[in-house]
Hints:
By secondary structure, the protein is mainly β. The protein has one domain. 0% of the residues lie in helices and 62% in strands. The strands form two sheets. The protein has a three-stranded antiparallel beta sheet, with no helix packed on it. Strands 1-2 form a two-stranded antiparallel ribbon. The mean pLDDT is 93.
Amino acid sequence: MQEEADYTCxxxxxxxxxxxxxxxxxxxxxQDCEVCCNxxxxxxxxxxxxxxxxxxxxxEQ
Length: 61
């Protein structure tokens, strides 16, 4: 199952949304911003099948 989550890019400050797989538990991954293409680290905290926190951090190149 997936849940939609909004986030703001720490590089260009544009708001976007993404789908988070909530069946696999807490996770972290790196994905490029859809607007400015800079890398972002996402940390998703999942508890009992619910997204409880989405932490966004910039990755300096």
